[in-house]
Amino acid sequence: MIIAKEKYWKHVRKEEFRDNLFRIYLDNTCLQSDQGNDIKISEQLADEIVREWSVDGKISTIKNSFFTKFCFSATDCTEKERVAVLDRLIEYGSCDPICYIASEPKKFHLKQKKLYSPLIDWAEKFLSIQLKTSSSLLFIEQPSLNSSKIKNYLEGLDNFHLTALHELTKSLGSLFTCLALYNGFVSPEHAWKVANAEDNFRIEVWGEVEEETLVKNANLGYFNSLVKILNMI
Hints:
A hairpin with a 2-residue loop joins strand 1 (12-18) and strand 2. This protein has a three-stranded antiparallel β-sheet, with helices on one face. The longest helix is centred in the middle third of the chain and has 22 residues, at 106-127. By secondary structure, it is mainly alpha-helical. The chain is built from eleven helices and three strands; from the N terminus they run βββααααααααααα.
């Protein structure tokens, strides 16, 4: 565990541990997470961590760098926290926005249907579930067996993959869009388009608002970083 407040090391390096997993060393000290666990990661992630810990600055700032923060969070995930993440993801699946297709205006209805319907079909086949859809914003009670089937799939993931899926689901607002991306059914660009269908239609009709565009671009940057992590774990 890093205790000092200021950077005290001169060199940062990666060193293979086993099974293509790498540890990070600050001079001769092995980098550990906030809870004192060794960081054991893929070579690509290790390269990113080396880059982040090679910059000058306060340790607290370095620890909040994107890849370091992700690796610390996944490494320190307790069983209780893992269960909480599973519950949150299952909750997303019980009220996923792709199950709500507006009836009006007609142009928006057609856009949503074109984007959402293939994802619904894919999720039903991939997870062996049934999804009810609605044109209203009222909550849809999904079949009770869905939750256990979603949970069964998610429980097979390690903490790094589960953490990535959790963050991506929050970014996209949709578990099923996230799973489709994770399993290669849709591209990152398409997943982002699905997640922003309503905003894109509003912009098409009313035009862009500068402040909202800045926020959207920042969110896209975060999403792209998460996608990059998917290719590293």
